[in-house]
Amino acid sequence: MNVFDLIGPVMIGPSSSHTAGAVRIGxxxxxxxxxxxxxxxxxxxxxxxxxxPGHGTPQALMAGLLGMRPDDERIPRxxxxxxxxxxxxxxxxxxxxxxxxxxxxxxxxxxxxxxxTLQGSSIGGxxxxxxxxxxxxxxxxxxxxxxxxxxxxxxxxxAEVTRVLAESRVNIANMRVYRSxxxxxxxxxxxxxxxxxxxxxxxxxxxxxxxxxxxxDVERED
Amino acid sequence: xTAPIDYSSLQDLADAATERGCPIWRVVLDQQTQELELxxxxxxxxxxxxxxxxxxxxxxxxxxxxxxxSGLSGGDAAMMDAxxxxxxxxxxxxxxxxxxxxxxxxxxxxxxxxxVAAPTAGAAGILPALLxxxxxxxxxxxxxxxxxxLTASGIGLVIAKRACLSGAEGGCQAxxxxxxxxxxxxxxxxxxxxxxxxxxxxALALKxxxxxxxxxxxxxxxxxxxxxxxxxxxxxxxxxxxxLAGILSRIPPDEVVDAMMSIGRQMSPDLRETARGGxxxxxxxxxxxxxxxxxx
Lengths: 222, 296
Description:
The complex is a heterodimer. Chain A has helices spanning 3-6, 16-33, 46-50, 57-65, 78-84, 157-167, 198-205, and strands at residues 10-12, 37-45, 88-94, 102-110, 115-124, 127-133, 136-140, 146-152, 172-179, 185-192, 210-216. Chain A is α+β, with helices and mostly antiparallel strands. Chain B is mostly helical. Chain B is built from 13 helices and one strand. Chain B has helices at 10-20, 24-36, 40-63, 76-85, 92-110, 126-138, 142-162, 167-170, 172-190, 195-207, 225-244, 253-266, 283-289; one strand at 114-116. Strand 1 of chain A pairs antiparallel with strand 1 (114-116) of chain B.
């Protein structure tokens, strides 16, 4: 924790967990889809379902899926904005097994008809934890600058990614690779000491075989 | 040379400042610029931005008397502002401004307006309320208020490390209690308190909020949160005044923080943000529960 965690985040109220954290969860999926969805199903679990509506959790989740950050003053109007964009959406109350009380599973279809599902929890103070992407069980919080790469399973992929980061003087603090034989999809999560520059992110996006790249960086919200 | 600053102790923080002959905010600023690998001016600029958001959240809360989506809050900051201007109050303009500012921030928060969590959204009113109320009286510049935010965050970092800052873990004492401690230390130090007196101001504020439960009606951050922030700001002011008079907490500041955590652990989960106990479980509190907004 640092001074900006204590005096922050700058956010739209009323709740760091039910509002700010919910925006951050939605925003991860926005980045993984590469833009806003055409249709989306939000499955709200326990506290997100029970007290979510009173905390603006539905608006916050949708705001994230529209690419907003937690301090965006349009968050309260996100559902109207989504309807204006012709986005089909539905909220359901569900029981997600063994999930944190503030959890949601979001299944979205993007403009190019690709489907993506993400499950995440808001664990307090706006800090989130993403626990699955598509059928991959993952685990990252976004407390540190984090790169989420979805890519094909091929030789040399990781080496190219780490080379780009090394050349950009970005030090890797933690790195995990998750693989599913079913989909052939690989999720590589990289937590870094320094935030990746825009140039580094562009270089990563140019790597052949990379499907999607999401950049989680709380610092970028300022 | 003392040990590096790791925010494990309020006393160590005060000792480090005393040894260097500087205020606590300077110790925190130097340590944070090093840890974040940012120049001092960048840290100050980002805190100035947060100060601007705090100021705007107060102004918006006073100007907008509309109710929140649930109808449970809204309009109290405007009422306080009117009463203050008409001179109908007993406690003096500083106390009135602190009460008004705190309710303004939390009403803005409840209306889904932009605020700065300090340390949480539910307790976001206390620190800006007191900082701006005292700054108006004393003529403090924004640069000085940034230093107040640094003192406050040093205190908050220790509470986060030794105890906790969330209502779900420690009850309202962890949210409003911590915010009052941060605010008390910040204004005390800005008013000239020594590092020792500064951490005692924090301890005095936290001490008298020990045991405060988190019992939000309908699970919303409105009742009793808006008014608890108002009272918390006045608490911070009183604690700062005690410390400025040279009065110390008989229980050392770090032990007060430890007591807060141990009380939090003994607190029933019904009283830790679950909306199952306390005010939330009163007949009136329960009646409001059915009126929580639906998804539109």
